[in-house]
Known about the structure:
Layout: H1 6-27, H2 48-54, H3 64-78, H4 81-86, H5 89-119, H6 137-145, H7 160-177, H8 185-204
Helix pairs in contact: 1-3, 3-7, 5-6, 5-7
Amino acid sequence: MIDYEFLNGLRGWGAFAVYLFHFTEAFWKIEKHPEGAKDLDPSWNAPTWLMVMRNSPLNIFIAGYCAVSVFFVLSGFVLPLRWFLKRQYSSIFGGIFRRYLRLMLPMFVCLSFYYLAAKLDWTTKKGTLSRVKPKSFLEFIEDSLIGVWFMNFDYAGLTWTLSVELIASYFIYVLALVPIHYKGRFWIYFFVLVFLYLPRISDAYGSS
């Protein structure tokens, strides 16, 4: 059996890269996209080494968008792995049941800090968390358990990754379970990948 322990190292790089990406963006107030990296505030001049990193292959060390894509690919590979190796239906059904809880509980804790900061006026800018402050506790519970998984960005725009992660996880489990019973399953995988990638192709050629 292949040892996939090295994937933990890849996750570690991804987590650190996302952290560095957001840290440099916030601390030096520069644009998110490296192709347009420039100072937004003259009083905060980004150092030369950072500009070089963001506009060269060295950007891989702080490439937040790349790291998020890697996380998505890793999840798609790891989630159904036990099912493919052991063919136990509990791997699918148990995974579907646990996935929401594993993502929801940490998110609930994180959003509670946002809610607390908004209610106690701990923000430094007047407009920060302005959509959160009027919310009742019950609305906060609803947002944490349901809303944030359907692109509710009232608390933090970065939560979009988890909503994609949750919905895509269920799709991965279904895709892993159903085609495994067919000899032509690899054709199914191929056409699904092509179908999902078509919007990227059409966008690239300006036809969508």
